């Protein structure tokens, strides 16, 4: 993925994502909340700001469409699903929303995997690593936060030895397949 334009595309296609817009003309696509998140389309978390609805006009350049606007979601926790060659490998979650970097292995339900697979299929990348980052909102729904296929951080040290070994083996097979070598 290059930038976050895909979040607008997924919002417009009514996928289960935190809705995103890049122009205030589309503000009606977002829920009416007290706080919005404004961030650069081509950035990571740098430049992220929390603003009120009244402050949006000063923060969003609707002509350049370089800014992404999303409603602030009060989440229960974040979860990431890791795939190699479209095959699920493992999941992590941050059970404490304040300590977002303290990850634990997560045992996804079939419903969770169905959710994550929607984005893997949509992304249409037949090979390599993809990470589906989501949050579970207060209503229990998973919503996409980010789809990462360029340089996903894998958090391998937080895995059990067996899961880490299986992941490394799957990655080797993927690389060999990509190089058109037989295993």
Summed up, what is this model?
With 183 residues, the protein is of the alpha+beta class. Helix content is 24%, strand content 27%.
Commentary on this structure:
It is built from four helices and eight strands. By secondary structure, it is an alpha+beta fold. The strands form two sheets. A five-stranded antiparallel sheet has the order 6-5-4-7-8, with helices on both faces. It has a three-stranded antiparallel sheet with strand order 2-1-3, with no helix packed on it. The protein is 24% helix and 27% strand.
Shape: globular
Task: Return the average pLDDT rounded to an integer.
Answer: 88
Counted by DSSP, the helix tally is: 4
Strand order of the largest sheet: 6-5-4-7-8
What structural class is derived from the secondary structure elements? alpha+beta
User: How far apart are the first and last residues' alpha carbons, in Å?
Assistant: 29 Å
């Amino acid at each position: 993925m290059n930038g976050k334009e895909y979040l607008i595309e997924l919002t417009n296609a009514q996928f289960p994502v935190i809705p995103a817009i890049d122009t205030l003309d589309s503000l009606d696509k977002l829920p009416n909340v007290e706080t919005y998140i404004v961030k650069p389309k081509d950035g990571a978390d740098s430049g992220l700001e929390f603003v009120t609805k009244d402050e949006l006009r000063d923060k969003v350049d609707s002509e350049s469409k370089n800014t992404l606007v999303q409603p602030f979601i009060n989440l229960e926790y974040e979860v990431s699903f890791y795939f190699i060659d479209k095959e699920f490998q493992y999941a992590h979650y941050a059970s404490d929303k304040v300590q977002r970097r303290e990850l634990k292995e997560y045992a996804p339900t079939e419903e969770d995997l169905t959710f994550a697979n929607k984005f893997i299929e949509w992304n249409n990348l037949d090979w390599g690593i993809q990470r589906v980052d989501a949050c579970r909102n207060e209503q229990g729904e998973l919503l996409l936060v980010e789809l990462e296929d360029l340089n996903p951080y894998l958090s391998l040290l937080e895995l059990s030895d067996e899961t880490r070994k299986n992941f490394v083996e799957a990655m080797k097979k993927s690389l060999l397949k990509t190089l058109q070598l037989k295993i």
